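Feature request, filed as a ticket because there's no other form

It would be nice if the structure record came with a short human-readable summary line next to the tokens. Right now we just get the raw output. Example of a typical job, pasted below so the devs can see what we mean:
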Amino acid sequence: MDNLASKINWKEYLSQYDLIYEGSSRKWQDGLVLGNGSLAAIAFELESFYPEWTINKNDVWDYQHPKFNRHNMDKIREINKKGLDFVDEMSKENIAGTGLGKCPSPKTCGQLRIQFGHNQDMAPGHRITKKLGLYDATLHTKLDKHLSHPKISSFICANKDVLVIKVRDVS
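Raw output as currently delivered:
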């Protein structure tokens, strides 16, 4: 089996499964995710115009009181086992000593936006194509419009918490 694995051209094999967007991802929810398990970035184009990365770190948490109760896993199992209505249980007030109350949630660490040329009021947005290469975990973004053709490569280092963004303007 090891002999067969050594004969496979992994770059060529994995490139069949690269993720390709032939248009912009206008909201962060539609973006492509880069990461190494510790640092992550979601790449998208704000308003179909500006390339943007929302950056998160796995050990940055927000411990504020939520508007609704967040139960620990033992409490959720208990609710399920008893067949209780989960929404009703979530809306009950916190009771001292039950383990309910403050519960961490992920917190965004930062955002980076790059603006090329004139703003969107002056000129139409770029035509955007993106390819997330699975072999090298690099996102290649091409923006194209009259007199502006920037190419962006971005990735997060596998063993360091570093986001790398390379911009080449080939106008």
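Something like this underneath would help us a lot:
Helices lie at 2-7, 10-15, 73-82, 86-91.
The chain is about 15% helix and 40% strand.
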